[in-house]
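From the methods appendix. Each design record in this collection lists the tokenized structure first, followed by the designed amino acid sequence. Records were kept in a plain field format so they could be parsed without special tools. The example shown here is representative of the layout used throughout.

RECORD:
FOLD TOKENS (311 positions):
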């Protein structure tokens, strides 16, 4: 029985329960998936959700979603709302009933796919909008919509919608033609699902393989760190390890499987103003040149040809 009220991946008996958010997290950061698996198997405690910055972002996202819901109702669309809390199985049944009834919009549709022997997939689509395309329901079918605060479409939003579209296809007999993203300015962007399906299936297969066979990855800093509840833990580990990513200007865009490691900045390419600020920050407030720290390059004891500047 799928447990209600859970967030993040977890175990239901011997099977992992995964969500589109877990898939997106894997593509942002392998280490996030490693930590999530440890939590799911009860080998690590999940950090407390007490980051005020994350709370603000979540609050703004919820407000944006509610604003779009209000707008749909004001425009005369009939909306069936699925409860956001309570027994997960009951919410799935309410979603299936709503799909059969055929309202204009279904809000917070809940899907659970426990077919096959792999992980169980669950998801909660922001909105499903009715379109005049025949399906197993009759003369209509549905297309998924997701609200995002961003002002432009991001790959993470597209991948989440691809998962919702896959779940919709199980119920209505065919995948939707379009997926939709409502951006922060209330602009709706529509995309053809067929243009992203192949990438989604490949990404999903890699993610399932990582969850099945395990993943070990160093916490390299990535864009997702800014909104990650594990941020403090990873920052502390890089500081403790004196990791090369702490070097100013260090590139971290080299593929993870590269044997060459990170790329140090080419010092002459730094902007002059930035170099001046860095130099000024190492000078003590004294007029005596003897009081200023001397700097030299000291080789790091490693096979890689990196150097550390010590003062």
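DESIGN:
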């Amino acid at each position: 029985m799928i447990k209600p009220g859970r967030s993040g991946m977890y175990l239901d008996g011997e099977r992992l329960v995964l969500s589109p958010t877990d898939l997106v997290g894997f593509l942002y950061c392998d280490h996030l998936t490693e930590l999530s698996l440890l939590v799911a198997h009860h080998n690590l405690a999940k950090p407390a959700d007490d980051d005020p910055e994350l709370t603000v972002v979540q609050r703004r996202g919820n407000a944006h979603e509610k604003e779009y819901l209000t707008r749909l109702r004001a425009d005369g669309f009939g909306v069936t709302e699925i409860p956001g809390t309570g027994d997960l199985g009951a919410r799935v049944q309410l979603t299936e009933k709503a799909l059969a009834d055929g309202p204009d919009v279904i809000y917070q549709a809940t899907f659970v796919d426990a077919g096959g022997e792999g992980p169980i997939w669950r998801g909660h689509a922001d909105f499903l909008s009715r379109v005049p395309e025949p399906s197993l329901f009759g003369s209509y079918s549905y297309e998924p919509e997701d609200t995002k605060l961003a002002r432009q479409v991001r790959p993470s939003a597209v991948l989440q919608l691809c998962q919702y579209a896959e779940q919709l296809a199980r119920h209505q007999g065919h995948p939707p033609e379009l997926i939709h993203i409502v951006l922060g300015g209330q602009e709706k962007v529509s995309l053809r699902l067929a243009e992203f399906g192949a990438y989604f299936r490949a990404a999903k297969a890699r993610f399932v393989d990582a969850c099945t066979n395990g993943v070990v990855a160093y916490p390299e800093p990535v864009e997702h760190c800014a909104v990650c509840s594990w941020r403090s833990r990873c920052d502390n580990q890089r500081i403790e390890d004196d990791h090369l990513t702490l070097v100013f200007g260090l590139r971290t865009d080299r593929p993870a499987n590269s044997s060459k490691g990170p790329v140090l900045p080419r010092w002459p390419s730094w902007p002059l103003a930035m170099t001046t600020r860095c130099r000024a920050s190492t000078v003590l407030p004294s007029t005596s040149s003897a009081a200023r720290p001397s700097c030299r390059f000291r080789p790091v004891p490693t096979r890689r040809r990196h150097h550390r500047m010590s003062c």
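APPENDIX NOTE: The helical segments are 20-28, 30-40, 52-74, 88-101, 155-172, 197-213, 231-241, 272-281.
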